[in-house]
Amino acid sequence: MARRPAKTGGSITRGGGVALGEAVFRSLCEALQAGNYRAGDRLREEEVAQRLRVSRTPVREALGRLAARGFVAPAAGRGLIVRSLDLSEVLALYAMRELMDGAAARLTAEQASAPAVAALRDLDPAFVEAPEPDATAMAKLNRAFHEAICRAARNRYLDNASRELQDWIALLGPTTFTVTGRPLTSHGEHQALIEAIAARDGDKAEQLARAHIREALRCRLKLQQRQEGVCS
User: Fold this and answer.
1) Cut 0.70: pTM above it
2) What is the Rg, in whole angstroms, of the alpha carbon atoms belonging to the chain?
3) What does each C-alpha distance from 130 to 125, 184, 216 come to in angstroms?
4) Ranges of each domain in the chain
5) Which strands form 72-74's sheet, in the order they lie side by side?
6) Considering the domain 20-82 in this protein, what is its CATH number?
7) How far apart are CA 45 and CA 116, in angstroms?
8) Which pLDDT band holds residue 112 (cuts at 50, 70, 90)?
9) Residue 134 pLDDT level (bands cut at 50, 70, 90)
10) CA dihedral of residues 98, 132, 149, 216 (deg, nearest 10)
11) Is the domain defined by 87-231 classed in CATH 1.20.120.530?
């Protein structure tokens, strides 16, 4: 079956003196995060350039950076394809995510301001109120929740590393919120984590955050098994 064409959205808008190559690169990364690109999608310079309304030179530069990071690989014939991650890479990715989310939760619990805690509480009801069938909307809210914790940790190195990790997670395909029961269990895990942060309990916050990611991994593996079963 033919792959669907990947989409990047509208034309590039530069601001703050951002070089065109950097703007294209950021646009492609955002498209990855949004799920506009999925594993196996083919990317061609001319097609991306047309969609973003730029010349092929900055596109070539941006695709080269994506290839250097391992997000894309040469395709048979012309262009590049978005990579898929094998099991060992998935396990390594979630192991790193567990460490980083645990550290972010601990730091946030130890130093988060009252407004930061209130912001987390504000995100929690929005997660519950999202229509359950809309797994994509829930995934966006979930990401906002984890980004808020990372920002509250006040560690720009951790924040930057976490954002890059999210790019890799985008290569995994459908969100784990498509797994039956995951939205409800994830909400409960978020609530417990918020309470630990509000109580300034760094140990508990880290433990809960790490357990949350381990459960996400369990759902990810379950989802992949389901997909393999459909394809076999």
Assistant:
1) yes
2) 19
3) 9, 11, 19
4) 20-82, 87-231
5) 42-43, 80-82, 72-74
6) 1.10.10.10
7) 42
8) confident
9) confident
10) 0
11) yes
